[in-house]
TrEMBL record:
Residues 2-84 form the 2Fe-2S ferredoxin-type domain. InterPro entries: 2Fe-2S_ferredoxin-like_sf, 2Fe-2S_ferredoxin-type, 2Fe2S_fd_BS, Beta-grasp_dom_sf. NCBIfam families: PRK10713.1. It comes from the Bacteria. This is Class I ribonucleotide reductase maintenance protein YfaE. It holds the Pfam family Fer2. It comes from Rheinheimera muenzenbergensis.
Amino acid sequence: MYRVKVGNNTVVEFDDSAANLLQALERHQLQVNFQCREGYCGACRCKLNSGEIRYLHEPLAFVRQGEFLPCCSIPLTNIDIEIP
């Protein structure tokens, strides 16, 4: 189980019951923009401040350094993120 710190004060626990980070964030009523849920569109793009994630499959959407797509990724460590 990993801790996902969102912004300044929200902490979400990520465990194997969530298929990806987007699903874990939604379970905790955190709003993330999304469209495809597959890594094609990039609408769910978030900022990764610290920690490591792994993509379940390589996204087709362009992702800049320091960004990630929660719809197709899982944490490898505790992470600190920002949702736009």
